[in-house]
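Review session, final week

We close the course with one last complete record, chosen because it touches almost every idea we covered. It is Hemerythrin-like domain-containing protein, a protein from Gracilibacillus boraciitolerans JCM 21714 with 149 residues. Go through it on your own first, then we will talk.
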Amino acid sequence: MKRHEALYPLSHQHHHTLAMAQQLKNADESSSVQKMTRDVIEFWEKDGEDHFRDEEEVLLPPLYAQYETVDKPEIRDMLIQHVQIRSYVQQIRGVKRPDRQLFRDLGALLQEHVRLEERVIFSMIEKAVPDNYLFQANGRFHRDSYSGF
């Protein structure tokens, strides 16, 4: 799927998110809970939290301006998933030894979330938001800690 180049940083972060999601979904008895906990917290603190903020504070306002509402089921689903993912991260941080099922559930949700954004939300944004704003927004995105993109 061809993506507007201003959205490349977010799509690039989605690639790393899908790798994390796959790792979490495959958690089994041989998976180290401590390592998965460290990985989730590192992922969240380095990129996840800022990525959500970029979407909520940089991308959604111009979408609202164009449609005069963000009361669309797809946007609601995205924001609800943001809340759910934040909740999973808080649970993982707050429990001494999280259950592996918690990691598998988070992995499945991360995968579903990325698919929603890449297939639906970003397409809505590309259609509704003028190019010049997308390019301005790109300059405000958090840079991926893995590649600096």
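Two points worth writing down before the exam:
The radius of gyration is 16 Å.
The CA atoms of residues 118 and 129 lie 16 Å apart.
Good luck, everyone.
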